[in-house]
Specification:
This protein is an alpha/beta fold. It has a single domain (14-257), classed as Phosphoenolpyruvate-binding domains (TIM Barrel, Alpha-Beta Barrel), CATH 3.20.20.60. The chain has twelve helices and seven strands. It has a seven-stranded parallel sheet with strand order 6-5-4-3-2-1-7. Helix 4 crosses helix 5.
């Protein structure tokens, strides 16, 4: 039987590289086929899969990552730290990249890139499981495809991260920047103040630095309407949510709307 090399692609990364905007959905506990299907049907591009605050069964996580890719989504796993063995396992399970929480130092980011890339760009070990659709026909070709597909996203959510943001973004292999405004506000002494002027100014400074480098970045605050969305895109913002909401928030919002007729 004639075989062909399985394509390893990252649709969201390709869309960003072409100048397009992407929509991200943040999932905590609900690693279910229904979430993948509905998120894909609604036109989202990225699934951020939370592991900073949630413990997942490895088998369940693997199934979810494979489902996401099979439905045209880009699964990005949010991680609280950089550990070589963990980085390799999550990529081999099917993740197409990482969102590094509390990104703060250049060595931290350099390690993440190095652990996530195959030689000569890094030190990732070769496997042929979910990451490669269970089949590597051309090892060199696969490694090149995988290195191009892996997406490294920095989450700036501390004052130190803001201070070092330019240097972090200059690390070769960094692909995008998002924010954790809740933790950043707390670290800056204004917990809960997501609209605090100092907080917004800090994020805007990072955004300006990202745009100057042609790096995809998230808005400091999401658009309130379509006109704001278009204005943000015209400025160069490419990553949109509601990535700061979770499936908990969406469930509560939908249920609240459904219950509205029953309340006075």
């Amino acid at each position: 039987m004639t075989s062909t090399h399985p394509a390893i692609r990252n649709p969201a990364k390709e869309k960003l590289a072409a100048g397009g905007a992407v929509l991200a959905f943040n999932v905590f506990e609900s690693l279910r086929p229904s979430v993948v299907k509905i998120v894909a049907q609604l036109g989202f591009d990225i699934l951020f899969v939370e592991t900073e605050h949630i413990l997942h069964n490895p088998e369940t996580l693997t199934h979810f990552l494979v489902m996401a890719r099979d439905n045209g989504l880009t699964p990005i796993v949010t991680i609280p730290g950089v550990d070589r063995s963990e980085i390799g396992r999550v990529l081999d399970a099917g993740a197409l990249g990482f969102c590094l929480c509390h990104a703060e130092t250049v060595p931290q980011v350099e390690d993440l890139v190095r652990f996530a890339k195959y030689p000569p760009l890094g030190v990732r070990a070769l496997a042929h499981g979910p990451n490669a659709n269970y089949w590597i026909e051309d090892s060199a070709g696969y490694r090149g495809d995988a290195n191009a597909a892996v997406q490294i996203v920095l989450k700036i959510e501390t004052a130190l991260g803001v201070e070092n943001a330019a240097a972090l973004m200059d690390v070769d292999g960094v692909d995008a920047v998002v924010f954790g405004p809740g933790d950043l506000a707390a670290d800056m002494g204004t917990p809960g103040g997501w609209d605090d002027p100092a907080l917004l100014a800090a994020m805007e400074g990072v955004i300006d630095a990202a745009l100057a480098r042609g790096l995809p970045v998230e808005a400091a605050m999401g658009p309130g309407d379509h006109g704001e969305f278009e204005a943000m895109k015209a400025r160069g913002i490419q990553i949109f949510g509601p990535a700061r909401m979770t499936e908990y928030d969406h469930l509560r919002a939908g249920a609240t709307l459904a219950l509205a007729p029953f309340h006075g």
